[in-house]
Design goal:
Elements lengths: L14 H15 L3 H35 L2 H50 L2 H6 L2 H43 L1 H7 L3 H38 L1 H6 L3 H27 L1 H25 L7 H40 L23 E11 L2 E11 L4 E6 L5 H8 L7 E6 L2 E2 L5 H6 L1 E5 L9 H6 L7 H10 L3 H7 L13 H15 L3 E5 L7 H15 L3 E5 L11 E6 L2 E6 L1 H7 L2 H15 L1
Parallel strand pairs: 3-8, 3-9, 6-7, 7-8
Antiparallel strand pairs: 1-2, 1-4, 4-5, 9-10
Amino acid sequence: MAKPTKPKRGPLYSETDRDNIRWFWRRYMRDKVKWVALILVMLVLQGLIYQQFLANTETGLRVIFESGSISDLLWICGVVFGLFMARGLLAYLVSIVTVRISNEAIYEMRADLIAHLMALDLAYFERTKSGEILQKVVTQTQALGLFVSLSVSNAVRDAITVVIVAGYLIWKNPLLFLSAVVVLPFIIWMMNVISEKVKQGQAEAEEALGHYMNGIEETVHGMRTVKIASQEEMETGRLLGSTEKLRSLVARVQRVQALAMPSIDFSSAFVYVLVIGGGGYMVLSPAFDVDGAAIITFLLGMVMIFDPARLLAQFFGGLQANLVLLDRIRSLYKEVPTIQDKEGAVEEFDTGADIVLRDVGFSYSADQPLFDGLNMTFEGGRMSAIVGATGSGKTTILSLLSRLYDVEAGQITIGDQPIDGLKVSALRNAFSVVAQDIVIFNASIWDNIRYVNPDASDAEVWQAAEDAEIADVIRKRGNDPVGPKGAQLSGGQKQRIAIARAFLRDAPILLLDEATSALDQATEERIKRALARLTKGKTTIVVAHRLSSISDADQIFVLEGGKLVEAGKHDDLLKDDKLYAQLYQAQKQGYVKG
């Protein structure tokens, strides 16, 4: 059996790498070209200072070996000291400027990433783990910023130093220099191998880190369940398993990167032997006009070349890892929002008109269609309710109305205006939502209410709180934060915050998604009173699990498997004795037994 062929090694920098570098330069660095030019000038000056150090060192050695003048020696020492003072000052200024422009670039990148995230469709967030998003916006951009601010400038400095010092040594003794760089092809080959392995390992490590962060986030968010189920040991084992995998991958990358330094050291030793042996022969041979001071200076120059070369080797290993980061960050921009304002979209429409679904088709995945030819009419200024089993499409209808998703077939209109012909912001500003799953921030109740309308006056916020019957809780708690995700609040208090937001927003169309589910009877009655005030005069669409809560709705739609199977008023549906009546009787018996 023939052995499998080994895959050919690709180029050190792929076209994708080069395209990403060009993208980063054009988008975040080109407007800072004056600062970049200043940095380059200072780096060149640092390289020239090293060259002058070598020249003065050779002169100083000749003073020691030949003239023996103390004053000349002191002068040389003063010049060398001044050179290094100047280099130190330049190094400080380079660091200050590079950190400044890199921080600005990363700030701009994060601002763009956040703006792009805000423009993406809801579908992206529902299919993407939050840990992956955090990794791009926080961890990877921070690592890239540190690399740009320190590693790149240091690498350019080292490269300039190598070029300037090498040029000086070639000018001084081209034959000896050429004999010393015979190891260069080996170094280039080794760096190519190391860089390729680092890039592959870094990509795997970033993937593992994303899973690791997601695992931690899931555990933290589900800690209540973990504690109640006494699954701390299982969660510890799961996270430790991910930790071990990540540790192994990172260690593999570091082992590969560690090969660079010994390779340079081995090459350096070979070169130093050549310089000492070959240079010594030139000093001893009358055929060459070379003295001891020149050879010592040449050897010192080779040290000054190989030390930056060692750092450059490290840089190119790190560059491959950061090219992986850059590619992953940029991949976010490949996500394009599909729900956007169409050409000619308008802002004005009759918010009090009927909302009509005509032959609507929609699916979350191609192989599992949800709606196929769905027709419904929600009358303007009246309350409509949608009921049905879990997965029948109730909440999806609310998402389609507010264009969190677009229909795949058919049309949704408000009045005679198709909603996809409206500006998205104008459409969504017409809706207020009160849902069971409420987003509560770790701020005061007051700030949580004001979130939907930051420009509202204090009087308006207080009125909204009073209408939602949450004002008494605000007075008791004051400005105390409510904990992550409102952990210090009850379910009823969270619901009343959501209702207060709806009062403060005061939109003409109200969407209630399971707004009174999972509440005790006393709390439910309190929230019902608030909702009665809130829904007055508005087009209201209610998704309800408790059928008793929507008995006074003007129209009730019954869904089953994405199809509309019944529609009518509560009493009429009970008389029909079909699915709605069965659901109602089942719930009624459940309450009696409870």
